[in-house]
Design brief:
0% helix, single chain, 17 strands, mainly beta, Metal Binding Protein, Guanine Nucleotide Exchange Factor, Chain A, globular
Length: 181
């Protein structure tokens, strides 16, 4: 079922963007078709994170969280993450959907430290149990973030953790003028 908004069809449950939506091309998704509340789904592509030339996380069993207006946030199973390079941070946050997040900082033991590079939900709220213990990384704080064979770029803004690839279109929450989306 769909609802007409502004002369075009928008999927039931989707939110109409406050600005002009970019129409997705073949093989693309619009972040404005992502649901609210967010959805968790398996990722068919290989996911990788590289810092200082070392693969910090690598999996074909990743999950992504899709939420209206935001690029996907990718989660790695803990078994796919070099947890020996990550330590606890004093930072924490709360998501109305997923619950309390704890943050992790990177330390290579040779002087490079990246504060709050990743986060995890130890006990997510109902509906998000699949990401319990999984680790998500800020693409803008690591040297490389990969979805399949494509290097991702970070979602705009300092708060958000989505990864942008050529397969998604916006506009994206975090861009100038998007406060309050």
């Amino acid at each position: 079922m769909s609802n007409p908004i502004g002369g075009r069809q928008v999927a039931a449950g989707a939110v109409a963007p406050p600005v002009r939506r970019i129409e997705p091309g073949p093989g693309q998704e619009s972040v404005w078709d992502y649901p609210r509340p967010p959805r968790v789904e398996a990722v068919p592509e290989r996911l990788r994170v590289v810092v200082s030339g070392t693969t910090l996380a690598d999996t074909t069993l990743g999950l992504r969280v899709l939420e209206t207006a935001g690029p996907p946030v990718y989660y790695f199973p803990p078994s796919a993450v070099r947890l020996d390079r990550l330590g606890p941070s004093r930072h924490s946050s709360f998501c109305e959907w997923k619950g309390d997040a704890r943050y992790l900082s990177y330390d290579d033991g040779a002087g490079r430290r990246i504060d709050n590079v990743a986060w995890s939900y130890d006990r997510p709220l109902p509906g998000y149990e699949a990401i319990a213990g999984y680790v998500a990384f800020y693409a803008g704080l690591v040297d490389e973030a990969w979805v399949g064979d494509e290097r991702a770029t970070p979602q705009p803004g300092r708060f958000y953790g989505g990864w942008i690839t050529s397969r998604i279109v916006g506009p994206f929450k975090g861009e100038p003028g998007s406060f309050g989306w």
